[in-house]
Amino acid sequence: MSAILLPANQPSRFYRGGPAIARFRGVPAAGDHVPEDWVGSTTAVLGGGGSGLTTLPDGRRLGDAIAAAPGAFLGEEHVRAFGPDPAVLVKLLDAGERLPVHAHPDREFAGRLLDAPYGKSEAWLILAADGEDATLRLGFREDVELDTLLDWVVRQDAPAMLAALNELTVEPGDSVYVPAGVPHAIGEGVLMVEVQEPSDLGVMLEWSRFGLDPGAATMGLGFDVALGCVRRSAVGPEELASWRRDSASAPETRPGVRAAVPPAAEPFFRAEWLRPDPAVSLEPAFSILVVVGGAGRLETESGRLDVAAGETVLVAHAAGPAALSGDLAAVRCLPPQPLEGRR
Question: The domain 3-245: what is its CATH number?
Fold first, then answer.
């Protein structure tokens, strides 16, 4: 139980993607509309009949296994704060086409109107950005009136929405924090690790091009209500800069470890870039490791696991102190600290 190698878990989605995940993992492609790999997930696709939930190699659903031994998987302090809930969701995401302009509700909106415990703040840790369109769009450059936004959405004026957003050029090793409510779109050719609050809530401002209807695009709320979760105030250069990190220049938090998200993200989740030199020590914690390059070894109190690029590993709290070594690079995604994330 201490370190579990996880296979791909790719639910069907409405947009194209999936082959880049297959190439990253070194496995045959599962299709062209499976653009997300939900890693160590106890979160289900909204309206998806349970798709998105992780099945462990022993055949159990991860959520059932955690419910049977929450302290072992998550740690007692985490369980006191969050219950038997990992409180984080990690994905690999392959944008096989540009994703629609959309936004996610925050916790207050989700709780008040959707009876949901989580909103969806997220962060994008870039693994590849291939092609002219492999850019990110994030936050309106200027304030947008509600009537203007509603007009764009009703008329499905995608060019107007895209033109209103900041455009960011990214490279492998960059990371971008996306607070809940901020409108955004991911360009074709981007492959990333996405770490987020554990929910599948979203308002699709751009919907008709992707075969969605207004009900599905608004989680059944209708646009008059759903647009209330969208941040319409401008996101300026300084604020954008505060949301960005890169794996080379971010300050080390300890040898071989650099923070992948800013402090503003840490009440929702944590993420680290790992580059052993020659080893990285890992404190006991529930975490998801994504090996993004090279090969090496994960050693825990109960044994050792050889790992290589494209592999994903769930590390339980019961693994105790661990060490990652070898000529490799990895991303480590974690829940919020219990006191920071306490609801």
Answer: 2.60.120.10
Judge residue 143's burial from the number of C-beta atoms within 10 Å of its C-beta, 0-12 exposed, 13-18 middle, 19 or more buried: exposed
CA distances, 27 to each of 9, 20, 31 (Å): 12, 10, 12
pLDDT digits (tens, 9 = 90+) for 190-242: 999 999 999 999 999 999 999 999 999 999 999 999 999 999 999 999 999 99
Task: Report d(CA 204, CA 153) in Å as an integer.
Answer: 9
pTM of the model: 0.97
pLDDT tens, position by position, 82-118? 999 999 999 999 999 999 999 999 999 999 999 999 9
Q: Where in the chain is the domain with CATH 2.60.120.10?
A: 3-245, 253-341
CA distances from 33 to 93, 142, 184, 240, 261 (A): 11, 34, 20, 31, 29
Cβ 140 vs Cβ 103: under 8 Å: no
Return the CATH number of the domain spanning residue range 253-341: 2.60.120.10
